[in-house]
Write a structure and sequence with these properties.
- This protein has 69 residues and is mainly alpha-helical.
- The chain has a domain of 48 residues.
- It contains 2 helices and 2 strands; from the N terminus they run ββαα.
- A hairpin with a 2-residue loop joins strand 1 and strand 2.
- The model has no long low-confidence stretch (mean pLDDT 80).
């Protein structure tokens, strides 16, 4: 009987674009969103939406970091 290898993973999409599900990819996307957010009016709908995306990516980054220990 042949051994079967199953690959499992999660795809992450922000604004319809796939974010590479790695520490480097997550950090890169976070930095990009933070740079865009600095140009926005604090408290605007767009600013709040970016804050939620950044918080989500930070939680993913934390999870990746904890899994590497």
């Amino acid at each position: 009987m042949a051994d079967k290898i199953a690959k499992r993973g999660v795809s992450i999409f922000i604004d319809g674009k796939e974010v590479k599900n790695s520490v480097g990819g997550i950090v890169s996307e976070m930095r990009k969103l933070e740079a865009q957010q600095k140009k926005m009016i604090i408290g605007s709908d767009e600013y709040v939406a970016h804050a939620k995306k950044i918080a989500y990516l930070k939680s993913l980054h934390k999870e990746h970091s904890q899994n590497q220990k």
